[in-house]
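Need tokens for this chain, all 224 residues.
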Amino acid sequence: MRIDILTCLPRLLDSFFAHSILQRAQQGGFVDVVVHDLREYTLDKHRRVDDYAFGGGAGMVMSIEPIARCIRTLQTERTYDEIIYVTPDGERFEQRTANRLSLAQNLIILCGHYKGVDERVRELFITKEISVGDYVLSGGELPAAVISDAIIRLLPGVLNDETSALTDSFQDDLLAPPVYTRPADFEGHSVPDILLSGHEAKINEWRFEKALERTKQRRPDLLS
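Here are the structure tokens for all 224 residues:
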């Protein structure tokens, strides 16, 4: 898989992809994450990627020209399954969306800034719009990183135990059950006996019951 991230602040993403699972995924050849500086695609001598909004009002708008040049350059090199724009008014990002996107070969993620992008970018280039929550951030870099993380960890071979991702919260519309590790007793608080029994079928049954119980208590909307 290849993920191209388009941003006017590429340094914000340097650290995120340089550690832990995401770093190992790239080093192992499971994914190629390429961050593009939109300022490299502007013809403005000051490398500006924004301008004032037609009609007035507060805030600047990201210009269409550098974005169009970047996307078209990338499209000459490969075919993209989706060109994603992260925006507060997009489709809410959920596990099922991550599952679908993890099957793609090539993705572009465009990070917005200021008051957003020129609407013609959305009309001409964007195939999917995603929101990571009902709030506004200073830019799209954090959402792009969140989306990438959720996708990459699902790729076969990325996690040491591939079944781990299958038992995460939101898979099968359930929250994950409680988990425990050593010591078995901490100041009188003990691990449930069933988890120490070695009886796999009963342990799986317990985990399902606890996952269902937690989901009913905390996210009953998932069961609907």
